[in-house]
Structure formats: structure tokens, C-alpha cells
Amino acid sequence: MHTDLFAISAEHDQPQSTRRPGQPAAGMVAAAVVVLLLALAGLVWSPEALANLQEALGLVLFAVATNLLLGYGGLVSFAQAAFYGIGAYGIAIGWLHGQLPFWLGAAAGIAASAVAAVVVGAISLRTRRLYFALLTLAFTQLFFVVADNQGGFTNGATGIFGAMVPTWLAEPQGGYYFTLAVVVIVTLACYAIVVSPFGLTLKAIRDNRERAEALGVNVFRHQLAAFVISAVGCAIAGCLFAIYSQSASPDLLSWTNSGEPIFMAVLGGMNTFLGPAAGAIVYFYAHLYLTEHISDWQLVLGFLLLVIVLFKPSGLAGIMADLSRAAGRLRGRTGGRA
Amino acid sequence: MTPSAPLLEARDVRKVYDGFAAVDGVDILVHPATVHALIGPNGAGKTTLFRLLTGEAKPTSGRILLDGDDIGGRQQHVIARRGMTQTFQITSLFRRLTPLESVQFAMLAAAGQSGRLWGRAAAAQRDAALALLDSVGLADFALAQSGALSHGDQRALEIALALATRPRLLLMDEPTAGMSPVETERIVQLVSGLVRADGLTVVLSEHDVDVVFGVSDTVTVLHQGRVIASGDPAMVRADSRVSTVYLGEGS
Amino acid sequence: MHSLVLDIAGTLSSAANLFVVAAGLTLVFGAMRIINMAHGSFYMYGAFAVTTVLGVSAGWRFWLAMLAGAAVAAAAGLIVEVTVIRRLYDAEHLTQLLATYAVLLIFADIAQRVWGTGYRTVTPPAVLASGIDVAGVQVPRYELFVICAGVLVGVALWVMLARTRFGWLLRAAVQDPESIATAGINLTRLRTGVFVLGAFLAGLGGALTAPLQSIAPGMDASIIVSVFIVVTIGGLGSVPGAAIGALIIGLAQTLGAEFFASWAASLIYLIMIVVLAIRPWGLLGVPER
């Protein structure tokens, strides 16, 4: 049986050009509604629920940024944890060693991630497919070893803990709204990039690298740019984590942490822009519930991943598309269009 | 013979693989706004010569000149920017993009805008792209998925992609391979129309003898890496060496 | 001088162990183009199975336990191949990575159910427990045993690949997959055979090193990275490459512990980066089709 996550699926990879320009997509309206509801939740939910949601939102950004490279760029990388971790450590180290305000530490962490991404990308993108993935894994583990061992700088294996953000940010509502604002803004920026000519170029390279090259596109440079942009998004997500947990530790940078946003993206549907966001939310809450109630959460997670990868590669987004098509048929109209 | 300077020139070009000369001292002159056909049996060196012209391979010796500039060994995307593009023998499309998106991408790439981070790609050059798709007969399929098109439509999209970059010179590697007579005729009309109307220069390699002699202004015959005849179709057809080596083998 | 002998023994024994496990992975990838993230799970199951067979005391049951460990891993490999791997042959690398990672999660959970979450140890049989005098230094006999086992496995694999029909088919599959597809070979049985062999080797590696380390959950994830590095450096599909890679990594681990202390772990990653930067297909690998 042929299973292919990148398979042709006309229903799930809706080209924007099917809409009349000017008419907002059903998906965009739904997203706006969701953001509104999230904003309202900040006013009524309990502090514990808000804390969970804040953590989940950070993961949403992590997954969306990772999918820029995975779904749109067609590149399987293990480096996203490294950039995530560097972002988090930016705030933590800035606080620990320089008493820097969190936003300055964050800026430093994001800048450091970008530089690291240029180096890692420039070397790794010269290889393809599996070797590319393994090179990014090696780099990530390198960063992990640095974080784990440089006691003087990163506080070693224990990590850094402390009141590294101002009180208003450490409070449930303050932290929540800040995170929500950042996630929405950065996600919108990612969306703008995806629908831009650069985004179209990425998709073309993903589909047919040689043809894109023959049409005059410097594939290496575009992929490197995508690598760095994705890294910056992941670094911002890492900063949000540091803000939430007021900590940074080496296991943020381990390669297994890189697998999580990939899993979220696949779960939600890597062929769509917001699929990974949905996947992140579902994954987070499912994990929360499972670890509290079932001791075999690894088993459940494993089976779920296996079933999705083998039988429904288009993920939740694919299921949604199937449902909307079925609903359209029930209503007597032909097929469903976004 | 046109009096203008050649657009594309190959001078004593050789390509040696592991001691075997796939192309062994080939001279070619391609004049603007003409259709120049390369024919020869399998193994004659057509594909290798093509790859040398487009930059996919570097010549072992000899020069390749585009408008007087040496392009031998330059990177593919650089050559593409100089105004030479190609269609591929095996259809090479962007499977998950629509024809419209594919052509828009090609146009953006030609304009150097492939890296632009602002603006919406869907709106970029939309009218020009639709017009181009219309000219190759794909207006009805502009929003389908490229990978789902019929073979003939995919070949038409191939050509549209190459034309999207508004090249001066188009290399076509066996453009009518696997096509029905109707589809072949459609491509032939398209190509000759473009040459007449836009001054496009076309170099094509072909097996189909009728296509070659019907549409070409110049025919060059390759055999074992060397040119054995070159000139206008009638002259080549009458050349006895050509009949022996190539036409006698059947097409 | 003293520590040099110990260092050499240590390097060779960890290299031997890595080689046995890596040979399995490289054969599977070379012949079937399958990346198996659960390869470390077979390794872990081999080690755990040994603890079960042995109880606590060793003795003549030790050799039985070694084989049982490898057999359990092979059985697990059979189950995985039939249920999951069969569906992955034409799939994208990402699909294979994710599906086999899912298998890793499932196997990890089952292992915790069966063997608990704590760690276990195994003592080697008395005949291998003490040291042997080499150039004035006491070298653990068990390490020498592992080295011999590694060499034996290498020889056995070489014989199999060069002299048996199965080995011939395997080599053909590595070099030119199309050739065997058309030759009327029972492809399914070949693939199952290769995968089970790979699992067997992984389990054998786990069983062999059971007395040398603490056996605990998590050893599946930690071994897989070293094995991937060995296989990548050596070149996917090449058993000699796996041997070279194992030697390099074994050496790096020993030298790293001696000279780099806590930074030791970074050495193997640096080596992999340098090797791939110079030879993107590994030392003895073939460019990917």
C-alpha cells in the first residue's frame, strides 16, 4: 500500500487562486473567530487553565514555524529544537549573567538562533534528504552538549531557573495575553511569507528542484532563507517557553524535542498552513489528559502516529476536508470548496 | 540564409565521459527567429549536446556562445537568466501546483522576484499568466493540479513554463514524444506561430521526421557525436550520407 | 602504557558492539532503503531478554540467554516487518521516520510493562568474569569476548554476503534494486529476511553488551544516535563502511572520555559533520538515487 505524506491531494492543498481575490477563505474567518474566543478566554478562565493554554500557544508557534520548512519547504530537519532552545537560553542567560530585561535577552537569543541557522543551514543544505536530516541532528546534539557542559555559561545540566521575567508577565493573565499577541502576530507574518512569491518559490522547489533551478532560481539560497526564517520562528517560540516556565534547560535542545513539532504538524496536516496549529493544540491537550489518566500514553501516542502516517497522512486537516465535502454533498451542492 | 549574426553557436565542442566521446567536435550555428532541428539516431549525442547547451554539463573542450558570450560550463540558473530555457523530454512539472501557479512562478523567477517576501503570489502577473496558458490551450485547466492533467496537456504546460520566462532561445528535447498526431500538430502550430510572431528562436531534437522537415528552417544531423550534415531541410533530405545513416534506419 | 592497553581494549570492544548493531541497520537501509528508527528497540529487547532468561545468576545458561536475546529481537523484527514495514517500501523518508518512530514508542511502552521502569544488570559467566593479563595489565575478559564476537559476526556476514544465495540477492538489492525486481525473486520473503536479520543483529548487540552496562528504558533512544552516525559515516548499505565507522566512533568515544571530559559527546557529532561535509555520501557509500 502506497503511503505518501507529500502525495497529490487536490482537496487538501487548496491553491489560493481558486478563490476570487478579495473573498476571505472560510478558514481565515474561522481562524479570526478562534482568536477572538481565545482573547475572551483570558478574561474568564482559571489561572491553571490559562497557564496550560499559554504553554499550548507557544507550541502552536513552534509547530507553525517548523512547518514552514517541513510542509512548504519539503525539508525534514532535526534542528528546530536547537533554535527553540537558543531562544529560551537567550532570555535565561541574559538574566543570569547580565541582568538584562527579558526582551533584550530574547532579542539576543533570536539573533543567535539566526546566526546558528545560517551556519547549520549553509553546511547541511549541501546534502540531501536523509543525510541532511542526520546532519541537522548532529548539529542539534552539538548544541545540546554545549548547553549541558558549559557550566559557567549555561549552568550545565541543571539549567537556569529564576524570576527572569517581570511580574506582569509572570502573572497568568499578563503572560497569557502577551503570548497570545506574539503568537498571532508571528503567525500572521508566517502566513504573509507563505502566500508571497517566496512562498510559491519554496513550494515549487519542493515539488521539482531541478525544474526550479532550470528556471533560474538559486535553490540553495532560497532554502537557506527558509531555514533561517523557520529558525527565527522557533526561537521566538522558545522565548515564549522561557517566559512561561521561567527556565531554560539542556533537554530543550535534544533531538527528540525536534520530533514533537513534526508530529504536531503531521497530526494536524502539514499540507495546510493552520493544520500544524490545530495539531499542536490537540497534541498538547491529549498528552496532558493521557499522562494524567493513562500510564501507557506512549503506547497511545505511538498507535495514533502510526495510524495517521499509514492511513490518513493528510492529518486532521484532511479529515476536516473530508467532512466538509460530505456535508456539502448532504446539502445537495457539488463538492466542498474552501 | 539569414544575414544576421548567430544567436547560439557551438565551436568544436567535445564532451568526453570516461574516455568515450559522446560529443566529438561539433559546430552548430543557430540564427535568430528560426527553428533549428537536431536529428540523429539514439546514441548520436543529441541529449549530451543539449545538456552542454543548457549548462547541465560542462564541455570537455570547445566553446558555446550565446549572443557572442561564452556560456560553456556556467551554472544552469545563470544561463537561464541569459534568455535560454528548455523543455524536458520527460515531463518535469510542479505536480502539486496549478498550471496558473506554475506559470506565475516561472514569470516571477524570470523577473528576479522569486525571493520577494511581500505581496501575494496569487495576484502576481495573473493576467499575463492566464493569457500565456490560453495561448497553449490550457485556459480551461488553469486551476487544476498539474499532476492530474492529461499527457498532452502536461506537455503543453511544459512549453508554457519555458515560454513564461520570455526566452530568446528555447531548447526543446523531443517535444512531441509520445503524442498523438492531433497533439503533435497542435505543438507544431504553436511553435511556428511563436517564431513568426515573437521572433523566438527554437532548437529542437526530434525523432519524428515529418515534424522535423515540416517546421524547421535548418536541420543538423548528428551521428556518433559528430555532425554529418547541416543545412535546409530539402538539402539534408537529399544528402546520401544522411539517408544511409539515419533515415534508412527508419524513424 | 597501562592505560593504553585498556584504552585499546575498550575502544575495540565498543567498536565491535557498535559494528554488530550498525551492520544490521546498514544492511536494512542498503537493501530496502528503509530507515528504521526502532532499530534501537530491537537492541534494547535483546538486552532485556537476556536479563529475563538469566534471572540473576549466570552459568551455562549465559550462552542460551545470548541467543535467546537475539532471537527475541528477531521475532520482534518479524512482527514489525509484517505489520508496518511492508507498507513503507515506496513511502517518503519522512513517512518511514515517523512510522518507525511510532513503533519505537509502542515498543518502549511494552518494554516498560514487561520489564518495569527500573534498571537491571547482568553478570557475565565465571569463565569470562575476571581479567586476563595483557602486557602487565588486567584486561576484562568479557571485553575480549565482545571483540571476538564482533570479528566473528563480521566474518560470518562476509561469508554470507559473498557465498550464499541470500547474500548475493542482498548485494544485488543494494547495488541495483531494479535487477532483482524483474528476476522473479520472491521479493517479500527477501525483504522480510533482511529485516529480520537486521533485528537479529541489533538484538545480538544488545545481548552482548548486557553485562557491560545497566539495562534500562531509554537505551533504545541513546544507542540509535551513535548507530546512525556510524552508518552514515561508513556509508549507508556498506558493511565494511559500518566497520570503519564503528572503529572511528569507538575511538572517538574512548579518546573523548580521556581528553575531552564532559565535552566528549561532541566529538562524534563533529566527526560526522566533517565527514559529511567532505564526502556527502559517507566514506564508502553510494550517491542516493
Helix and strand topology:
The complex is a heterotrimer of chains A (338), B (251) and C (289).
Chain A: H1 26-44, H2 47-72, H3 80-98, H4 102-124, H5 129-149, H6 151-154, E1 160-161, H7 167-170, H8 172-195, H9 197-207, H10 209-214, H11 219-245, E2 247-248, H12 255-268, H13 275-293, H14 297-311, H15 315-330
Antiparallel strand pairs in A: 1-2
Helix pairs in contact in A: 1-8, 2-8, 2-11, 2-12, 2-13, 3-4, 3-11, 4-11, 8-11, 9-11, 12-13, 12-15
Chain B: E1 8-17, E2 20-30, E3 35-39, H1 46-54, E4 61-66, E5 69-70, H2 76-81, E6 84-87, H3 99-110, H4 126-135, H5 151-164, E7 169-173, H6 181-198, E8 201-205, H7 209-215, E9 218-223, E10 226-231, H8 233-238, H9 240-245
Parallel strand pairs in B: 3-8, 3-9, 6-7, 7-8
Antiparallel strand pairs in B: 1-2, 1-4, 4-5, 9-10
Helix pairs in contact in B: 3-4, 3-5, 4-5
Chain C: H1 2-32, H2 39-54, H3 61-83, H4 93-115, H5 126-129, E1 131-134, E2 137-140, H6 141-163, H7 165-175, H8 177-181, H9 187-209, H10 219-234, H11 239-260, H12 264-278
Antiparallel strand pairs in C: 1-2
Helix pairs in contact in C: 1-6, 1-7, 1-9, 1-10, 1-11, 2-3, 2-4, 2-9, 2-10, 3-9, 6-7, 10-11, 10-12, 11-12
Strand residue percentage of chain B: 15-25%
Terminal residue distance of chain B: 28 Å
Q: What does the overall shape of chain C look like?
A: globular
What fraction strand of chain C?
A: under 5%
Q: Low-confidence spans of chain B: pLDDT under 50, at least 5 residues?
A: none
Rg of chain B, alpha carbons: 18 Å
For the record, the CATH architecture of the largest domain in chain B stands as 3-Layer(aba) Sandwich
The shape of chain B, in one word, is globular
Q: H/E order of the elements of chain C?
A: HHHHHEEHHHHHHH
